[in-house]
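#lab-general

N.A. 3:47 PM
ok so I finally got the sequence cleaned up, no stray characters, all 178 residues accounted for. can someone with queue access submit it? mine expired

B.Y. 3:52 PM
send it over

N.A. 3:53 PM
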Amino acid sequence: MKVSNLIVPVMAGLALTGCASSASAPIAVQPLALGASSPLHISDVSADAAPNIEVGEAELGLITQKVKAYIQADSPAVMASAGASVYVMKIHMTRFDRGNAFARTMMMGLGQIHIEGNVDLEDAAGKRMAEYKVSKDFALGGIAGGTTTVEDVEDGFAKSVAEIVKGKVRQPAINRPV
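B.Y. 4:20 PM
back already:
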């Protein structure tokens, strides 16, 4: 077998695993209303999980570190230590399913990785000023499915949360009668 025959499938597999760490647009449940004269400033990012969600403190800490790093890299002026209009970003995990790499390798759709959460922006008094829903999942099969890890999807989730400060959010679908 020629080495050149292996290059295309391997490159395709590597390209497809990249979608696990890509950002997806958060859904604005209650978007933050900021005036042009009051820019967004975030003093801290924290994360917790619903009682029935199996996710460790180390994973929550890693996600918050990644979110802070992406915000700092993309919008350095947003991260602030103090100020009049400083918000705290709170991530509340509502789903954290690590999936199964062997099942993903066997067939697309099996052993999926799912990470979902609500992201709140609270003012200094602890009042929720905005709420967003963020989700990231991965279900591809074959080599790409078997080599994609939950850390790859956590990275995509963190990028998706960081999209909130850039205003790259979707509005919720409205049920309209047909």
